[in-house]
Design goal:
By secondary structure, this protein is of the alpha+beta class. It is about 30% helix and about 20% strand.
């Protein structure tokens, strides 16, 4: 458990460097399963979900070598697809990538128990739809048919980042040509395609909803730099807006933040950009706006909660319409404890102007927790937040970066559980003890 006390109500100012993207790093790390050689990754975010992903791969027999907090090599040559550590895969949604990666590499995938933030129903029908289009058999565990998987055609019934990733994983090592339509076009899907093509894959159409994938019987080794995290960057810009401050994020291209900065300009914020940085200051008249989330290139759903938190400080009403997730409004009940006033009609939330006050609140999920911190930074007094380990799943050095912007954030010591080491030691702990490669720091993230 992780608890913060945030004393807010004064402007943040300064600049912070953006870490590698959580949602970009996770598919890249699991992509090591379809490689026959070692993959080295740079600019990897040092976050709970990455540590958990590396632990899962290590438990399955991959050789994980941590060169430093942001550089890791994974060699999955001797990975066993049967050795799924379900007590770990249950900790995050990205574990589902093992389905496509193992199916593509081995023609078999055990069913990983997956977790993830609670946004209501999170089915895998699109994932299994593309697997079945390649001839795979099964509704949980997957097997290639006797003649092996064959290239096929699949039109995703709805845009799904995870299912697109899994379809690419399965098809890139499947004999024949696969056509995927209505694919997700988030920038990190494009990064994944570039990574796989560096391994020797033949994937065309990256950045578009239509992919053509010529399967390869083997893929090599490569290295790759994880792109900066636009959701992390946007969260800190929104913290600056909520506090009436002046925040710059560096190490990111303005175009990666354009969906957010276009909204902030409409609220009257001042946005300045340079090739590798974006600066946002709250304007004299910070006005409410209407925002609607959508798959890329629309407004990213993962910025919905922190954006609503910042709009709580605007003059006039705002609206947030959530078009990606069935139920992503749980965090609003915690913001209401701080005095925020909302009304909701279907998928549209209305933010009514109201003064916020410090309170005790609990993070409901990763981005919901970040939203509470954004609101607390704009609110006078000390807000006590619990459940902050959910934030640490996806934000590297969250409190440290806030402090670099002048925030007053304390991390409360949490009573260590009496069970110091729950469960038997993992393979990388054994590896460390017997002098093997430095194993991945132990996963402590949650899905
Ligand atoms: C990824 O989740 C991200 N997670 C999410 O970020 C992000 O919100 C989401 O993409 C949308 O951008 C990771 O990358 C680890 P989807 P994913 O499949 O792949 C429905 C964060 O905060 N759907 O694109 O699970 C689904 O229920 C996290 O960093 C089906 O109906 O999302 C949802 O309504 C939260 N059937 C919509 O599609 C399926 O088979 C989009 O889901 C798959 C999805």
């Amino acid at each position: 458990m992780s608890e913060y006390v945030i004393r807010g109500g004064f402007p943040l100012a300064g600049e912070i460097d953006v870490s590698g993207a959580k949602n970009g790093a996770l598919p890249l790390l699991f992509a090591s399963v379809v490689a026959d050689g070692a993959c080295t990754y740079y600019h990897v975010p040092d976050i709970g979900d990455v540590r958990l992903a590396l632990r899962i791969l290590s438990e399955m027999g991959a050789r994980v070598t941590r060169h430093d907090a942001h550089t890791v090599t994974v060699n999955a040559r001797y990975l066993s697809p049967e050795a799924i550590p379900r007590h770990l895969t249950a900790g995050m949604r990205a574990s589902s990538y093992l389905l496509g990666a193992c199916l593509g590499r081995f023609g078999y995938a055990a069913e990983p128990l997956t977790g993830g933030c609670d946004f209501g129903n999170r089915p895998l029908n699109c994932h299994y739809g593309v697997f079945h289009a390649l001839g795979a058999v099964g509704e949980g565990e997957l097997h290639a048919p006797p003649g092996g998987l064959r290239g096929g055609t699949y039109d995703f019934p709805q845009v799904s980042v995870g299912a697109t990733v899994n379809g690419i994983f399965a098809a890139c090592r499947t004999h024949g040509v696969t056509h995927l339509h209505h694919c997700a076009t988030e920038s990190h899907v494009g990064d994944l395609i570039r990574f796989l093509n560096l391994l020797g894959a033949d994937i065309r159409g990256g950045g578009t909803p239509d992919l053509v994938i010529r399967g390869r019987s083997d893929l090599g080794h490569t290295s790759f730099v994880v792109s900066p995290d636009e959701i992390e960057a946007g969260t800190y810009l929104l913290a600056g807006v909520a506090s009436g401050g002046d925040v710059t994020v560096t190490g990111i291209r303005p175009c990666d933040l354009s969906a957010l900065t276009n909204v902030l300009v409409r609220t009257g914020c001042l946005v300045d950009s340079a090739p590798d940085r974006v600066r946002v200051r709250r304007g004299e008249n910070f006005r409410g706006v209407a925002v609607e989330t959508a798959p890329a290139p629309g407004f990213p759903t993962d910025l919905h909660p922190p954006t609503v938190a910042a709009l709580c400080f605007a003059a006039g009403k705002s609206q947030m319409t959530e078009r990606v997730w069935q139920e992503r409004f749980r965090y609003t009940s915690e913001l209401a404890k701080m005095g925020a006033v909302f009304s909701r009609e279907g998928q549209t939330l209305t933010v009514h102007p109201a003064p916020l006050h410090a309170a005790s609140v609990t993070a409901t999920d990763l981005r919901g927790g970040a939203a509470l911190a954004v609101a607390a930074l704009g609110t006078a007094g000390k807000t006590h937040m619990t459940g902050c380990e959910l934030i640490e799943r996806g934000y590297e050095d969250f409190t440290g970066k806030l402090r670099r912007l002048g925030a007053d954030v304390s991390v409360l010591p949490v009573m260590s559980s009496c069970a110091s080491g729950a469960g038997e030691e993992s393979s990388e702990e054994r590896q460390e003890k017997d002098g093997g490669d430095a194993g991945a720091p132990h996963g402590d993230g949650e899905g």
